[in-house]
Amino acid sequence: MSPVNRVGAETGECGTVCGGRLAAGCGGKMMDGHRESAPLRLMACPDWVYLLREFDILYRDGSDGGSRAIRSHRKRVRDALARVVEGNPDMAGRQAAAKPVTAHLGRALDIGERGAVQGLARALSRVSGQLTWEYGYEKVPKALAEKYAYCEVLGPRGPVLSERLILGFVLFAPKTTYPQHSHREIEESYVSVSGSWSENDAAVYAPGSLILNRPGHEHRITTADLAPCLLAYAWVGPPDMLSTPGMKLTAPRRARMAEGI
Questions:
Q1: d(Cα 155, Cα 85) in Å, to the nearest integer?
Q2: Mean pLDDT rounded to a whole number for the chain
Q3: Which residues form a coiled coil (predicted)?
Q4: What is the edge-to-edge ordering of all strands in the sheet holding 210-213?
Q5: Contacts of 202 by beta carbon, 8 Å cutoff, 6+ apart
């Protein structure tokens, strides 16, 4: 049994903690009549532990389709996640934040909870009020700002702290085009949680599908017309690149010149 699959039985008895704060009456010590909160650690946050367990299941039990590259990537994600969980890291207190597209999150989770990745969708719904949704780009096209956002659940900025792995979710409104982009020195995979989408017009991917993007690979995403699209993602790469990925959309001229896009 992997460390991620064991941790559910090892969580603290305080099941209402998270969001970077210690729940009243849980842990800490008394100072001048007031409770001083000890640093909150992963094992004290069952909902976050269960979310990471679902990521482990996703990257352990899903098919690699016979691809050696995908098989190796999945193992890298699992191994990095296991090391994080074994270390019982501190939880970083991040302020919850919404974007316009998060108005579609409820529908995306409803669809996901009936689909192939329902365990992950349900686990995400338990922490949905604590998520920090953001754009990641200094300049975001106005149309995209209304229809896209992502949140990290594990990474250098938390809420679960890790230097060598980022796990998170990307949410798209219906009928969205996410412009061409790439990630230098970062290997990325997307797994469909709900909704249908296409990358580089190559195929249509349904819930449960995994797509691997090698470092530097240019890719563009489009989503279906009638339902939001929720993707889980994993980034593996050097710690310095994960902490400051320098996200940039590809310049329009370069994007037009890219082969096959």
A1: 12
A2: 84
A3: none
A4: 160-161, 148-155, 165-172, 229-236, 187-194, 210-213
A5: none
